[in-house]
Design brief:
Number of domains of chain D: 2
Order of helices and strands of chain D: HHHEEHH
Largest sheet of chain D: 2 strands, antiparallel
Largest interface: A-C, 70 and 77 residues
Chains: A alpha/beta (236), B alpha/beta (300), C mainly alpha (250), D mainly alpha (132)
Number of strands of chain C: 3
Number of helices of chain C: 9
Strand content of chain D: 5-15%
Oligomer: heterotetramer
Order of helices and strands of chain C: HHEEHHHEHHHH
CATH class of the largest domain in chain D: Mainly Alpha
Radius of gyration of chain C: 23 Å
Strand order of the largest sheet of chain C: 1-2
Shape of chain C: globular
Shape of chain D: elongated
CATH architecture of the largest domain in chain D: Orthogonal Bundle
Strand content of chain C: 5-15%
Number of domains of chain C: 1
Largest sheet of chain C: 2 strands, antiparallel
Distance between the termini of chain D: 27 Å
Number of strands of chain D: 2
Radius of gyration of chain D: 18 Å
Structural class of chain C: mainly alpha
Number of helices of chain D: 5
Distance between the termini of chain C: 33 Å
Chain lengths: 236, 300, 250, 132
């Protein structure tokens, strides 16, 4: 037999002791001298409340439910490991599975120099990839690619916040997305259910980090410079 | 046929012999008083009759059946004592309703009237009653159940004198209305003596006497007079009780039929003859030592 | 005079058991109150969540709180064990024998009571899980709730069925232990020792016990589980009745 | 009437005596049905069997007679029989006791007779007061 943490044993025993005391207190007590009728209605009320709860739960407004706001991920998506860094190494974003466009921008631009700044500086390493277009069409296109963050089989990409990209003179400002903190409540099936129906898929489901990448396509005649690290790729 | 019959009934608890070789019968529709000092085995005997305990040896028959674990005996018998337990969550009136379901002959009207008379609150809980009130309530159950065999084991524990009197009167009147076999155990005879038909004396786990109570008063006589005269007269008699009175007088209790011849002579010999009170006789017959507590001090 | 003059009641066993069963149900409401207390306590303990873990990157931090009503079910198991032991004690037995009873009718009505307790316990324990979800919904509104928040009826029914089966088995075991203790107080010492021994020593030395345990508890088919548990339960109850049938009462 | 259980007299004897007194007082007429054992049991709070024994004493002495299925009735010569019996038994025993006591105390026969006479006078006066 596996060794058991003595602390757990003590906690378990303490729990049992409390339970015994509660049962004995209720059963033995002269201090619990409820009229039989009150006792009966208390118990009946409790059972009725429980019987009603499956109905009540159906009627609760569910706008705050993950299931409602976020699509459940499919088996297919789950095992796609989307690595955005291959883009930085020259892969075409469209060819990578699991990568999607979170947001895109287009700016008319006639200058010859473009300064890309990242805010907040030093605190954030944005991954920026720059591709020089074939022609000088006077347009800067920016695409915010992302891979799906998947937690407990839930695709959180819908609530992912994109970067902010703005052009001011010859400065293209890339601002990090608002930091999102999400609390998720999930329910495990009771062991009596899982004995018969098997464990929920959750148990084995992997988690996926979501990551983001800013892909800039600049006119052929624009020179890009930046204090942040910028990856240049050639158009394939 | 008899309601109860026991043949050489013996009951031991471990090494303790609670009942020893008891043989008796109790007929139908009689009120029998089971009298004996504390520890005589009264409760044990009654519990065997009720089927709660098993006889170690011998044969017990109640309604011609072995009472132990017998549903038929249980359904026709009720056993009232101060150890009776009821569910704590039930009020007295709910307990009465439950009892009514169990006993075919249950008389709810009687129970209600007794409730009123003894001013018991039907909404009260049994475990909240005082000792005397508990006994009163138990007694009401015992009476209202109207079982062909009704056993009261020391039913008046904790009752005050007035209630005790009322109880015995209620018992008698209900018995007159619906005769049945009733056994009442007590360590004192005097207060139940009148309503009894038979008396069963038990002491040290042995049967001492079973007789109609009307014969009990004539069962023995007491003689008082000079010690040597008494000693001469009573030589060879069974002496139930003996006590020294004054310097050279003594007081003895002997069987009346054995003494019949002596009694005539007694007056002439200067002896006084007394009747013996029934409850005194019971004490004499069931006491551990002849001569009573005085015997402790006499040879001191 | 002869005995034929007395009109004696001829009770039927079934009738007596029925009356006693109803009497017990009425008189032991407090035990269900205890169940309520135990389950609500389990629910309160479950509110904090069984476990939580988190994951984050530059843009997102997700913390996941896992909730489970397993604890409520375990508490209910414990409750029925205590109840089963409790009703074998002298106090409860005396209540039986105040009115018409014999050993068999007393046991049968106890078994009936425990079956009722198992059914009520099973239904309430599983549904407490649903109640737990509702409570969490209201007190932890900021959560995004997901995954099994709403359980399919057939899943709940399966859960109820399995819980009831376990409760039946545990109540039978508890009753058996109680009866053993009534037979001899020695068992108060022996039983816990045996339990610890079984878990630790015997499991190693006697794999049979583990096999028996797995045979019953490790069953994945509801129908087979039901058959195994019901037969075992019936056997244990039968043993208890036979063992205690010669006991003296009151 | 309350029964006296302190005095050694058995209860059924007391019942019989009480019935005799009722008969002597004329509370029960000839050929009238007397109290049943159950009525007596209820009146005196005693076991009906004991009461029956008291009735049976009188029946044995012919004071009562039995009509089958109807109960006990007072025989016509009941008063006479009771008076005879009491004279021959109770009074005789009392006199014997008085004589015995007188002997023990050395009281002469003449002295005793005068005491009896005095007691009779006191009794007569008492009756007179009650009557007047």
């Amino acid at each position: 037999m596996a060794t058991i943490d003595p602390l757990l044993v003590i906690l378990f025993m303490a729990n049992l002791l409390i339970l015994v005391l509660v049962i004995l207190f209720v059963v033995k007590s002269g201090c619990f001298s409820l009229q039989n009728k009150i006792q009966f209605w208390l118990i009946a009320g409790y059972i009725l409340l429980l019987l009603a709860s499956p109905v009540v739960i159906q009627m609760l407004p569910k706008e705050n439910f993950a299931d409602e706001r976020i699509k459940k991920v499919s088996e297919k998506d789950l095992y796609v490991q989307a690595d955005l860094y291959t883009i930085a190494q020259g892969a075409s974003p469209e060819q990578i599975k699991g990568v999607f466009v979170l947001e895109q921008w287009e700016f008319p631009y006639n200058g010859s120099m473009l300064n890309v700044v990242v805010r907040p500086l030093y605190e954030y390493d944005a991954v920026i990839v720059v591709e020089r277009k074939d022609s000088a069409d006077g347009k800067i296109e920016a695409v915010n690619y992302a891979s799906k963050p998947i937690v407990e089989l839930i695709d959180l990409s819908e609530i992912m916040k994109p970067h902010k990209v703005a052009l001011d003179g010859n400065v293209l400002k890339v601002t990090a997305p608002e930091f999102l903190q999400i609390e998720l409540g999930v329910f495990r099936n009771e062991f009596v259910i899982s004995q018969i129906l098997g464990d929920t898929e959750l148990e084995s489901a992997p988690w996926r980090h979501g990551s983001q990448l800013i892909y800039l396509r600049v006119p052929a005649d624009v020179e890009v410079q930046s204090e942040a690290s910028v990856h240049f790729v050639e158009k394939q | 046929m008899d309601v109860i019959s026991c043949q050489e009934l013996t009951k031991t608890f471990g090494r303790v012999r609670a009942l020893n070789n008891i043989t008796f019968t109790i007929g139908q529709n009689r009120i029998t008083g089971l009298i004996g000092p504390n520890g005589a085995g009264k409760t044990t005997l009654l519990k065997i009759i009720a089927g709660f305990l098993r006889a170690s040896s011998g044969e017990v028959r109640v309604f011609s059946e072995d009472p132990f674990n017998n549903l038929k005996v249980a359904a026709n018998m009720i056993f009232i004592d101060d150890q009776m337990r009821f569910p704590q969550s039930l009020t007295l009136s709910e307990i009465l309703a439950s009892a009514a379901a169990f006993y075919e002959n249950w008389d709810m009207e009687l129970a209600r009237r007794l409730f009123d008379y003894f001013s018991l609150d039907p909404e009260q809980y049994h475990h909240k009653l005082s000792k005397g009130m508990k006994s009163t309530f138990n007694m009401i159950i015992g009476l209202a159940a109207r079982c062909p065999l009704t056993i009261f084991d020391e039913p008046t524990t904790g009752m005050d004198a007035g209630v005790r009197k009322d109880f015995y009167r209620a018992l008698l009147r209900d018995y007159l209305r619906k005769p049945r076999t009733i056994i009442i155990s007590s360590h004192l005879l005097n207060e139940i003596e009148d309503i009894l038909e038979d008396i069963f004396l038990l002491s040290g786990g042995e049967k001492r006497l079973q007789t109609p109570v009307s014969d009990l008063k004539e069962f023995a006589v007491a003689l008082r007079g000079k010690r040597e005269v008494i000693d001469k007269l009573t030589a060879g008699q069974e002496i139930y009780y003996q006590k020294s009175v004054g310097k050279d007088h003594s007081y003895v209790v002997i069987r009346r039929d054995a003494a019949e011849g002596l009694l005539k002579k007694a007056g002439r010999d200067g002896l006084e003859v007394f009747p013996v009170k029934a409850d005194d006789l019971c004490v004499y017959l069931t006491s551990r030592k002849r001569g009573g507590i005085d015997s402790v001090f006499d040879r001191y | 005079m002869s005995l034929t003059d007395i009109s004696l009641t001829e009770p039927s066993l079934f009738d007596t058991v029925k009356k006693q069963f109803l009497y017990k149900l009425k008189g032991r409401l407090g035990l269900f109150l205890a169940m309520m207390g135990v389950q609500i306590m389990g629910l309160l303990f479950s509110l904090s969540g069984a476990s939580s873990h988190g994951m984050g990157d530059n843009f997102l931090y997700v913390s996941v709180n896992e909730f489970s009503s397993d604890l409520i079910i375990w508490f209910t198991f414990f409750w029925i064990f205590v109840v089963a032991v409790l009703i074998t004690t002298k106090d409860y037995q005396n209540i039986d024998f105040t009115f018409v009873a014999n050993r068999l009718s007393s046991h049968l009505s106890n078994v009936g009571f425990l079956i009722t307790a198992a059914v009520i316990g099973g239904v309430t324990a599983m549904l407490s899980g649903t109640l737990l979800r509702i409570v969490i919904y209201f007190i932890r509104g900021r959560y995004m709730l997901s995954e099994n928040f709403i359980t399919d009826p057939e899943v709940i029914l399966t859960g109820i069925a399995v819980t009831i089966l376990y409760l039946l088995l545990i109540s039978a075991l508890g009753y058996f232990c109680g009866v053993l203790v009534q037979l001899s107080k020695v068992f108060i010492v022996i039983l816990p020792a045996l339990y610890i021994g079984t878990v630790d020593f015997l499991a190693r030395e006697l794999p049979v016990i583990v096999k028996v345990y797995n045979f019953i508890i490790g069953e994945n088919s509801l129908a087979l589980l039901a058959v195994k548990v019901l037969i075992t339960t019936a056997l244990i109850y039968a043993c208890s009745c036979v063992l205690a049938n010669r006991l003296e009462v009151r | 009437m309350e029964l006296n259980s302190v005095e050694g007299k058995p209860i059924y004897v007391q019942i019989a005596e009480w019935l005799e007194n009722e008969i002597l007082c004329g509370n029960i007429k000839e050929n009238e049905k007397i109290y049943s054992q159950y009525q007596l049991a209820e009146m005196f709070n005693i076991n009906p069997a004991t009461a029956a024994k008291g009735i049976n004493i009188l029946a044995d002495q012919g004071i009562l007679y039995k009509k089958r299925g109807l109960g006990m009735f007072l025989s016509p010569e009941a008063k006479e029989k009771i008076r005879d019996k009491r004279k021959n038994h109770t009074l005789k025993r009392l006199v014997e006791e008085v004589v015995f006591e007188a002997r023990l105390l050395g009281v002469s026969e003449a002295e005793l007779l005068s005491m009896i006479r005095d007691a009779g006078k006191v009794f007569d006066e008492h009756e007179g007061i009650e009557g007047g």
